[in-house]
Amino acid sequence: MADDRTEQARPSLSRQFLPAVHGLLARPLSSYYLLIASAGLLLLIGLTMVFSATSVKAYAANGNAFSAISSQAVYALLGLIAFWICQRLPAISLRALGKYVLGVAVVLLAFQNLVVLVKDIGAQESEQVGPISVSLLSLATGGVSIQPSEIAKLGLVLWGADVIARKGPALGHWRELAMPLFPVIGLLFVLVGYNDVGTMLVLLALTVGLLWAAGVRMRVFTALGVLGLTGIGLLIAAASRGAGSGSAEAATNYRVQRLTAFLTPLDKCDLSDACYQLIQGRSAIFEGGWFGVGLGKGALKWGWVPEAENDFIYAIVAEELGVVGCAVVLALFSVLAFTGFRIARRSADPFRGLAAAAITTWLVAQAVINMGGVVGLLPITGLPLPFISAGGSALIVAMAAIGMLASFARAEPDAARALNARPTPRWVRLVWAPLPPLPAPRRSGQTRPPAQKPGPGGRTPAGTGGRS
């Protein structure tokens, strides 16, 4: 009996060995500060690495080594504005915007796919339709380029979280999943996957994170996985007949090459084609060693690695900053993942919890797919590394997603109470963010939220009161 009492009184490992970390995490706004720190450091590393990867190429092209980084800095500034706007928007506004963002994404994707199909646009080609330049992955007009698939990610997060939050425990029935969630997700998979299998995989991961946070049954995930793999197989088969990012009919299936190259032994792989980027990525890791050759001193970016500032920027990190630099980037994404899921778990509002889980799954899954492809553990899909790769709409949308997470972190019950207990000056609230709403007061004698009926699979639906 004494042993039982001793065991119960024994503090957790975090209290024994990491009291300082435990104390920091126990603070009301710890999620908010962790999120800002991890995303901000990733953005700074990204700007530095984009400059390192593009300076020589830009100087050779137009005599200005800062031309590429100037463009990326503008996108970063626009991303910070998107972060600021999304941090200020209340949850009710985000829920209302979801269907419009998703609708815009569907219209743009349908237009893009139609032009690609009719004009038979290839991987490095574009076609002018009036004032709009259409390529395989983007639309451009007036010098502004956007990727509709990035807007689709944000739209699916907002619209999907709103739909699931409205359905609540009824989501356990198949008919509730069938209408309208699955048809819309299936349409997005087709529209996005026709040109970009990598982004389709991110949408699949985002959907899985959304449904897992909602507490749906395991068989739903099994069915969704089977449908997703079947869809990927059909899109790969379609590429052999010239669809999307595939090559011309009867030519070598480009998608099959990209997705299977990492499984092919190096002595049997075509080093001048499918395995070229894979070999260069491994060479960068070998050249960098533990501490790298030094920032700006890497040679592989000088034309050896295609898309060194974008898809394969992690290879440049490996060469110039070494294994230590790669580990720092990996650690920052790990902190981002921990913080995002922590926000989802601690959110009292169902919509905020679901959206936080979906955003975190999206960003982390995309980072894992990118880094796994560079080091040869996963297929190369052409996905950018969030916050680090060069790019416009991808960076702006990712920063907008971080702004939403920051808003959700400030709305955690403890954080909201702390912010309202000592309100900041009015000018600070006008410049930065308004005070979050206070959580609903507990009833007299109530020490915790009332128990809710467990959702499908035995888990409590996200944000319905069954979590603290």
TrEMBL record:
It catalyses: [GlcNAc-(1->4)-Mur2Ac(oyl-L-Ala-gamma-D-Glu-L-Lys-D-Ala-D-Ala)](n)-di-trans,octa-cis-undecaprenyl diphosphate + beta-D-GlcNAc-(1->4)-Mur2Ac(oyl-L-Ala-gamma-D-Glu-L-Lys-D-Ala-D-Ala)-di-trans,octa-cis-undecaprenyl diphosphate = [GlcNAc-(1->4)-Mur2Ac(oyl-L-Ala-gamma-D-Glu-L-Lys-D-Ala-D-Ala)](n+1)-di-trans,octa-cis-undecaprenyl diphosphate + di-trans,octa-cis-undecaprenyl diphosphate + H(+). It holds the Pfam family FTSW_RODA_SPOVE. The chain crosses the membrane at residues 32-53, 65-85, 97-118, 184-213, 220-239, 312-341, 353-381, 387-409. Keywords: Cell shape, Glycosyltransferase, Membrane, Peptidoglycan synthesis, Transferase, Transmembrane, Transmembrane helix. Residues 455-468 have a biased composition (Gly residues). Its EC number is 2.4.99.28. GO terms for cellular component: cell division site; plasma membrane. Residues 437-468 are annotated as: Disordered. The keyword Transmembrane helix applies. It is a multi-pass membrane protein. One of its GO terms (biological process) is peptidoglycan biosynthetic process. It is found in: Membrane. One of its GO terms (molecular function) is lipid-linked peptidoglycan transporter activity. Pathway: Cell wall biogenesis; peptidoglycan biosynthesis. It comes from the Bacteria. PANTHER family: CELL CYCLE PROTEIN (PTHR30474), PEPTIDOGLYCAN GLYCOSYLTRANSFERASE FTSW-RELATED (PTHR30474:SF2). Peptidoglycan polymerase that is essential for cell division. Belongs to the SEDS family. FtsW subfamily. This is Probable peptidoglycan glycosyltransferase FtsW. It comes from Actinoplanes siamensis.
